[in-house]
Amino acid sequence: xxxxxxxxxxxRTYTDGAAEVTGEGATLREVLQKLDSDFPGIGAxxxxxSGKIRRFVNVYVGxxxxxxxxxxxxxxxxxxxxxxxxxxAGG
Length: 91
What we know:
Elements: E1 2-6, E2 20-24, H1 28-38, H2 42-46, E3 57-61, E4 64-65, E5 81-86
């Protein structure tokens, strides 16, 4: 299934500056694996050493936060838009 993945500015060095790339996969896990295959190193910035989404990275499939859905097993239907959003801190 072809989906679009929105890449935050901080990770665009992995995508040659592209703000949005095409991904493939029936689940978020598959999309992220393919994304890391196409853009080596980006997966380690989204997933931690145990293979879970990093604590300060939010991922949405459409409007749904995957932490409140099925996590990495969240379905990614054809044409879905996935957004990777790093948390911003400050005061």
